[in-house]
C-alpha cells in the first residue's frame, strides 16, 4: 500500500533552502536574549514558611469580592503559569473582575524536604496558608482554587477541613486516576514506587520533565522547535515562546515522601474515588465536600484526561456542583486567547453568585 | 548517450547534499558558543538546535528520495522510522543522564581500581567476600536493566514500523481524496501525526506498561546498588553518606511535626487561659458562656485576635527565605 507524492523535487529543494535561510537569519535573534520575565503582577508576601510563600496579588482596582480566593497550585512546575505574562494571566483577569487573589508558591524542595509527606503539605503547610488568609480577613472560610494536582489537594483539604473552605474551584484536576486514556497513570502502575523513592530521594525535576516529554515525543521535542523557526523574526512572539520554555523546564524537584504517597495512593490505588484515602491518619471522603464546587476541565488535556476530572461529579457530596468544559489543553486553559476571554469571567460569575 | 532523467537525479542529489553541507557548517558556527561547558540540555538553543538538526536530517532524507518516488513506491529506500528512533535516543540520553554510558564508566573505574571483573564471577572468598558479592549483584542488576531497556527499545522499533504503515495509509487516503501533501513541511506534519498516533497506541498497551515498569525498576535497582558501593567507600574515607544525611533529615522532620503539634496545643491553651482567669464565682449565665466558648474550638480559631502575618511568622521562627525564590 504505497502512495505517490506530488512534491516537485525542485520545489522541495527550494523549501529546504528557504528554511535554512530563515533559520540562519533568525538564529542571531535567539542569541543574547535575557531570561523572559513572567507577568510579575504586583504582589505582597503575607506568609512564609520554609520554602513556601503566600502572595497577595494586587490588581489595578480594589477587590469587590468579600471572600478571598487562594490559588493552590501543583507541586510540579510553578504557580507562575497563572501569571505568565500581562496579556495571558489568569491572576490578572481574576483581579480585573474584582476577585481578591492569593496564591501559594511552594518553592523548590531540596534534600531537607525529602521527608515531607502529604500530611505535612496539606494538614501542615496548606492549612497554615489558609489560616494566614483567614486571619487577614477575619473570616472563618475562604475560597480555594486548586489547579491540577493542586486541585486534588484542594479537594482533600476541603474534605478534611470543610469549615475553612467556603467555595471550591478545581481546574484540570485529576480525581479518577485510572481512566483508560490516562497515559501517565498507565505508565506508573507497574513501577515499584518504594524502590524508586528509596533510591532517588527527591525526584529530580529533569526526570519529571523527561516523562512529560515522552508523552508526545515528536511534538514536544522536535515539531514545536520547527514551528519556532517561523517566529524567529518576531521578537514578541519569540519572547513568548521562550517564556513558556522557561516555565516548562524551570520546575521543582518533588519531595520524595509526598511523591511516594501521591503515586501509591492516587495513581496506583485510586483511593480518592474509592473512598479509601487517608492523609495523616484522617480519612478523606469526597462525600464530605459539601461546599459549592466549580469543576473546570480541558477537552484536549493529554495530562489530565476529561474523564479523570469529570469523575468528581459522581463522588462529591455537594448539591451545588457545576461542571464546565474548556476548548483547549492543559496549558491552553491558562494562556490561550480563548482562556483570557472565558475562564476568569466564568470563575468570577460563579464565585460572585456564592459570595 | 546522456540520460536526462539520470542527470537530473544526480544533479538534484548533489545540490541537496551541497545545501545540507552549507547549512551544517553555518549551524556549527552559530551554535558554537552554545557548545561551551555552560550549555546544557536546559538551554533552549542547545535543545532546540538538536531538534532542528533532527528535522533537517528528516528533510534531507525525505528530499533525497523524492526523485525516485513513483506512484507505486514511496518512500523507495528511506526508513521513515529512523528519525523517530533518533529523536527518542536523543531524549533518552538527556533524560536518563546517559545511564548506559555512566555504567560503562563505572565498570571501567571498578576495573582500574583493581577490583575483580564482575563479568567473570568466581565464588566469593576471603576478606573482600562481601564486596565481591555486591559487585556481582550490581553486575547482574545491570544485565537485568540492559535486558529491560532492550525490550523497551524493541517496542519503540514497533512504533517505528507501525508509524511507517500509518503514514503510508494516510498518504494513500489523501491521494485518493486529492489531498496529498504539496510540500515537505506538510509531509513532515503528517509524519509526526502518524508516529505520534502509533506511539500513543503502543504506549497505552499492557505490554508497554509492563516493560516500562520493569525498565524503571531495573534502573532503580542498579542505582541503589551503585549508591551502596559508593557509601561503602565514603565510610572508609570518613565522609558522611547520603543514607546518614537522610536519617538525620527523617528525624528532624519527625521533630518538626512534634514541635508543630506542641505549638498548636500551646496556642489552644493560651486561648483558653483568659477564660480560666475569669473572676471567681461568675453568675450561672456567665459560666455557661465560658463553657460554650471552650467547647467551640473551631470557631475560636477564627475569632481569636488577629496577629500580623509577619509577626506570626517571626513568632514561629519560620520566615526563612527560599534560596531559589524569584
UniProtKB/TrEMBL annotation, chain A:
It comes from the Bacteria. Coiled coil: none annotated. InterPro entries: AB_hydrolase_1, AB_hydrolase_fold, PHA/PHB_synthase, PHA_synth_III_C. The keyword Acyltransferase applies. One of its GO terms (molecular function) is acyltransferase activity. The keyword Acyltransferase applies. One of its GO terms (biological process) is poly-hydroxybutyrate biosynthetic process. It holds the Pfam family Abhydrolase_1. Keywords: Acyltransferase, PHB biosynthesis, Transferase. Gene3D superfamilies: alpha/beta hydrolase (3.40.50.1820). This is Poly(3-hydroxyalkanoate) polymerase subunit PhaC.
TrEMBL record, chain B:
This is Poly(3-hydroxyalkanoate) polymerase subunit PhaE. Pathway: Biopolymer metabolism; poly-(R)-3-hydroxybutanoate biosynthesis. It comes from Fulvimonas soli. Residues 271-284, 292-320 have a biased composition (Low complexity). InterPro entries: PHA_synth_III_E (IPR010123). Keywords: PHB biosynthesis. Residues 266-326 are annotated as: Disordered. Pfam families: PHA_synth_III_E. One of its GO terms (biological process) is poly-hydroxybutyrate biosynthetic process. It comes from the Bacteria.
